[in-house]
């Protein structure tokens, strides 16, 4: 799940967010170091220290999230059955059906499918666990 989280964090929200998340931390860090070396007032040096701290934080943010909020990104051992009109999810004796009308957005990624539901939940379905007929159904769902 960590690979999926990192892939979604950096590349899942479009090119502007990708550029921002990859370059903002190092740029803020460089600006902070520059301000620190060229600063001649206590306020300027204090602000430079804040910029250095924030630049390092922004670069490490996804790893901090994974470290401290790991329970938000747990894998569930759920059996998924993709049918022509709905998704069937089963964990033990608990069964749940997701009608395709409840899916707001469906995205195909390199190694998984991301399904955003109307209830603000997201399902990540790795392609290696799906059969070819299920992949075709998901492919039609994206179109």
UniProtKB/TrEMBL annotation:
Does Membrane appear among the keywords?
yes
This chain's protein is named Uncharacterized protein
- Per the record's keyword annotation, is Membrane included, yes or no? yes
Organism listed in the record: Pontimicrobium aquaticum
The alphabetized UniProt keywords are: Membrane, Transmembrane, Transmembrane helix
Indicate the transmembrane segments per the record: 12-33, 45-69
Give the domain of life. Answer: Bacteria
């Amino acid at each position: 799940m960590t690979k999926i989280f990192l892939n979604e964090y950096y590349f899942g929200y479009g090119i502007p967010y990708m550029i921002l998340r990859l370059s903002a931390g190092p740029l803020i860090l460089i600006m902070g170091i520059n301000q620190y070396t060229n600063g001649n007032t206590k306020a300027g040096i204090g602000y430079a220290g804040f910029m250095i701290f924030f630049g390092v934080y922004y670069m490490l943010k996804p790893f901090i999230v994974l470290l401290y909020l790991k329970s938000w990104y747990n894998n569930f051992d759920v059996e998924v059955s993709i049918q022509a009109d709905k998704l069937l999810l089963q964990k033990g004796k608990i069964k749940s059906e997701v009608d395709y009308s409840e899916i707001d957005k469906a995205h195909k990624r390199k190694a998984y499918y991301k399904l955003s539901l109307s209830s603000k939940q997201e399902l990540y379905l790795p392609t290696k666990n799906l059969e070819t007929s299920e992949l075709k159904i998901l492919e039609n769902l994206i179109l």
